[in-house]
Specification:
By secondary structure, the protein is mainly alpha-helical. Helix content is 72%, strand content 0%. The chain has one domain. 45% of the residues are buried. It has 10 helices and no strands.
């Protein structure tokens, strides 16, 4: 198989993999509802937790993470592609698929879980960037525990991702991936940012935080 054909196949397969609307499917199967008409209306793990409950939400989260991991760690290998650039292309494609799924009129999630899966897949193949994954997850966790806002945690972690890539000697391809993921996350969180400014954004009531 010619290299250009392999690359195109990798991108298409990764996009279609990312496009599988797990939260939507679980909403239909578990509660017989269209999750887009409940909660925030988002087709992602956070809204699945909110609308469907902890167990279905956890399953959706894990499956969305798995989509990113499989795309960069398995699909690329199965097609016999070697090099960081091919994993980066697959990673971008799978997140685009999740965010703008062909199965739901190009409306999807926000790419956080699938983007995390991409990072996990990359660290499986590129041990040198494992600190990037750890720092990104730690940033998300610290900000979430401090604020209770999933959106703030996600935007903060995504914004710092390119910096982590740069400081930890990531290749130019990985730095570009970080920048693209950052742009995706900010764009997909524009409604959340508006609600944060207006003071109407939903906050998770953590056990140790006093309700105001």
């Amino acid at each position: 198989m010619l290299l250009p054909v392999k690359i195109i196949l990798s991108i298409i397969i990764s996009y279609l993999l990312g496009s599988i609307p797990t939260a939507y499917l679980f909403g239909r199967l578990y509660k017989g509802i269209d999750i887009r008409q409940h909660g925030s209306g988002n087709v992602g793990a956070t809204n699945a937790f909110r609308v469907l409950g902890k167990i279905p939400g956890t399953i959706v989260l894990l499956l969305d993470i798995a989509k990113g991991t499989v795309a960069v760690a398995l699909v690329v290998d199965l097609l016999g592609l070697e090099g960081i650039i091919f994993r980066v292309l697959a990673g971008i494609a799978v997140v685009i698929g999740h965010n703008w799924t062909v199965f739901l009129q190009f409306k999807g999630g926000k790419g956080i879980a699938t983007g995390l899966g991409v990072l996990i897949g990359l660290t499986i193949k590129i041990a040198a960037i494992r600190p990037v994954l750890l720092l990104t997850v730690a940033t998300w966790a610290v900000v979430f525990l401090a604020t209770g806002y999933v959106s703030v945690s996600s935007v903060t972690a995504a914004t710092l991702l390119p910096l982590f890539m740069l400081l930890l000697n990531g290749s130019i391809e990985l730095i570009i991936l970080g920048v693209i993921f950052c742009i995706f996350v900010v764009l997909r969180h524009r409604p959340n940012i508006k609600r944060l400014i207006a003071g109407t954004e939903s906050r998770v009531n953590l056990p140790f935080r006093k309700k105001k």
